[in-house]
Design brief:
single chain, alpha/beta, Rossmann fold, 7-stranded parallel β-sheet
Length: 344
């Protein structure tokens, strides 16, 4: 069996590659190796960028440096594959307003090319979407608790209205990608699913301030840097450990039911930014310094996934936040030399 993972050298993609490799699959990691976001983290671009490439190469993955916008390369490299997991993306809301064309090309044109390659070779495909597609009118339904935003009912399912509130180009590009998955399923004999992921975290995540907040806090705390929080810090998510995220694709391959799915930890994994920072402090035995900044426009203050639908095809998140955050911190501590912290 052979899987092509777009964005294979990214954070989530690397966990997907690792899981399928461990299951005995041939794995093609297909990644443009963009440095756009990493260049902004202040962690040092070269070593951090190559980390996942070297890790996957050592696991025996076939490494391809190519762009999802390259139609021919997508078609050539997916030939002979049994499954495509599409994680390549421009994933950050902040970058989507800095460079909306990059966002459009990567997320819309890129996803179209992935689907078209899947159609040519008749390969099932999963597109990685985001809870961003729900927009942020959820902010109007919340109560402010002592350390987190609260809502009743706690969890939100796929029937919740999408694209409501103040929207960024990222909302539009992620939603457009989902629409294309649907049309390829309905009319072009290319069955696919879109997974609306919550906040994901874990080892091999070089999270900056643009996306990947759990890792951003963990890395900065390990290096003794102040943690920057935008807004009250009570924003809440059902954070999902990356290994569990990777399992969702394998479960889907074994039991494919086209559609859209929320993929998160569910209510048991609910944690706010400041609760997560307190947990990181407890694990490290320190008290991280927090700098509060104004909330960023478009920020979603709350999302907790109802994962009933995804459980039907076998998704089953297992790693609880405390255990997962400990693993993330251990990885940062063991790989300190990879980070060239400039004190940003
Ligand atoms: N990290 C999260 O918390 C989170 C939450 C919700 C959804 N997601 C989604 O999960 C997916 C993976 O996110 P991630 O956190 O692993 O991001 P990431 O930035 O770590 O990985 C994305 C990878 O895609 C590659 N890439 C970017 N543009 C490309 C292109 N044009 N062609 C080929 N490769 C390209 C990058 O080089 C990178 O390695 C994205 O679709 C993202 O929207 C992530």
């Amino acid at each position: 069996m052979k899987v092509l993972v777009t964005g294979g050298c990214g954070f989530l993609g690397s966990h997907v590659c690792e899981l399928f490799r461990k299951e005995g699959w041939e794995v093609v990691s297909y990644d443009s190796m963009t440095k756009y976001e990493l260049a902004k983290t202040g962690y040092g671009t070269e070593k951090t960028r190559n980390f996942n490439w070297d890790y996957l190469k050592a696991l025996g993955c076939e490494m391809v440096k190519a762009d999802v916008c390259d139609e021919q390369a997508m078609k050539d490299h997916s030939s002979g594959c049994n499954f495509i997991v599409h994680t390549a993306a421009q994933p950050a809301m902040t970058i989507s307003w800095e460079d909306p064309r990059l966002d459009f090309n990567t997320n819309v044109l890129g996803t179209f090319n992935v689907l078209d390659a899947a159609r040519k070779h008749r390969i099932p495909v999963v597109n990685t979407s985001s809870i961003h597609v729900y927009g942020n009118s959820i902010n109007d339904t919340l109560k402010e608790g002592a350390t987190s935003y609260e809502r009743t009912p706690v969890a939100i399912d796929e029937k919740h209205p999408v694209m409501v509130g103040q929207l960024s180009p990222l909302h539009a590009s992620k939603m457009a990608a989902e629409h294309y998955v649907r049309t390829f399923t309905d009319m072009l004999q290319t069955p696919g699913a879109s997974f609306r992921f919550t906040g994901i975290y874990g080892p091999r995540q070089f999270g900056g301030e643009d996306h990947g907040w759990v890792a951003n806090f963990a890395i900065r705390a390990v290096f003794g840097l102040p943690l920057r929080v935008f807004g009250t810090g009570k924003q809440s998510r059902d954070i999902l450990y990356a290994g569990d995220g990777a399992q969702s694709y394998l479960a889907y391959f074994k039991n494919p039911i086209p559609g859209v799915y929320n993929i998160g930890g569910g209510p048991e994994h609910k944690i706010s930014l400041i609760e997560c920072i307190a947990m990181i402090g407890e694990i490290l035995g320190t008290k991280p310094v927090i700098e509060f900044h104004p909330e960023r426009p478009g920020d979603m203050r709350y999302f907790i996934c109802d994962i009933t639908e995804a459980r039907k095809f076998g998704f089953n998140p297992k790693v609880k936040p405390r255990e997962g955050v400990e693993k993330l911190i251990r990885w940062v501590e063991e790989n300190k030399s990879v980070f060239n912290i400039t004190g940003k």
